[in-house]
């Protein structure tokens, strides 16, 4: 075999080795007793139900993780960003779930400002841990809520894609579209929070977190 044929014959092997060298390692699951931060607003607090019925508490039961409920009623993306910096300064987390922005939309705040704040939260979280997920919140549209057809605000997908974080879509919007799962027009009830927790657990399993 001449030199040219030898080079051609070895090319597939060289390309395969190069590809292996560039392949990203597969992400491992979170440890069974992982500490997870749930950062959000009243939907994270569990408004409309008891603290034990809030989705972070139920998610902890489903996964075995320690899920810290850092939801604040009425909080905005700006408030969550400020709180998050303080939380990171004093605590360590294995994963972060970010569900914020609904109050920004309800109050007519600038979408770009909300988007920028959430992106800043996600960037800070990713500097802390690779396990960061953005839980999309539906656009506040009472008529669509009445007919059961709420949909996520589009900027959540944009932020998750730009920052390379995990997007968790269609959880809040699905539950809040069902009157039987709501305590009022913008909050879930105990049954609704249980559904949210189960859907989050399923989606995080599908993403390889557990």
Descriptive overview:
With 210 residues, the chain is of the alpha/beta class. It has helices at residues 3-22, 42-45, 55-63, 77-90, 102-106, 111-128, 142-146, 155-163, 172-176, 190-206, and strands at residues 35-40, 66-71, 95-99, 132-135, 166-168. The protein has a 5-stranded parallel β-sheet with strand order 2-1-3-4-5, with helices on both faces. Helix 3 (55-63) crosses helix 10 (190-206), helix 4 (77-90) packs parallel to helix 6 and helix 6 runs parallel beside helix 8. It is globular, with a radius of gyration of 21 Å. The model is unreliable at 1-26 (pLDDT under 50).
Please sum up the structure shown.
A five-stranded parallel sheet has the order 2-1-3-4-5, with helices on both faces. The N and C termini lie far apart (52 Å).
| Tally of helical runs | 10
Listing every helix as H and every strand as E from the N terminus to the C terminus, the arrangement reads HEHHEHEHHEHHEHH
**Residue share in helix:** 40-55%
Q: Average the pLDDT over all residues and give the rounded result.
A: 88
Q: Whole-Å distance between the termini? A: 52 Å
Stretches with pLDDT under 50, minimum 5 residues: 1-26
| Number of beta-strand segments | 5
Q: What fraction of residues sit in β-strands?
A: 5-15%
Lateral arrangement of strands in the main beta sheet: 2-1-3-4-5
The rough form would be described as: globular
Pairing-aware structural class of the strands and helices? alpha/beta
Largest beta sheet, briefly? 5 strands, parallel
The gyration radius over C-alpha positions equals 21 Å
């Amino acid at each position: 075999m001449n030199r040219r044929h030898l080079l051609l014959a070895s090319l597939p092997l060289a390309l395969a080795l190069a590809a292996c060298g560039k392949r990203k390692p597969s992400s491992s699951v979170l440890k069974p007793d992982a500490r997870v931060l749930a950062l959000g607003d009243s939907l994270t607090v569990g408004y409309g139900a008891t603290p034990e019925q809030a989705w972070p508490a139920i998610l902890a039961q489903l996964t075995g993780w320690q899920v810290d409920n850092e939801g604040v009623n009425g909080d905005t993306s700006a408030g969550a960003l400020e709180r998050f910096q303080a939380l990171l300064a004093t605590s360590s987390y294995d994963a972060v779930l970010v569900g914020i922005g609904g109050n920004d939309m309800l109050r007519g705040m600038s979408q770009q400002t909300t988007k920028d704040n959430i992106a800043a939260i996600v960037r800070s979280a990713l500097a802390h841990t690779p396990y960061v997920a953005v839980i999309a919140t539906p656009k506040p549209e009472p008529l669509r809520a009445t007919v059961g057809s709420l949909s996520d605000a589009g900027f959540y997908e944009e932020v998750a894609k730009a920052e390379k974080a995990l997007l968790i879509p269609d959880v809040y919007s699905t539950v809040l579209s069902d009157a039987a799962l709501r305590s009022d027009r913008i909050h879930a009830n105990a049954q609704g929070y249980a559904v949210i927790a189960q859907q989050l657990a399923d989606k995080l399993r599908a993403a390889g977190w557990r």
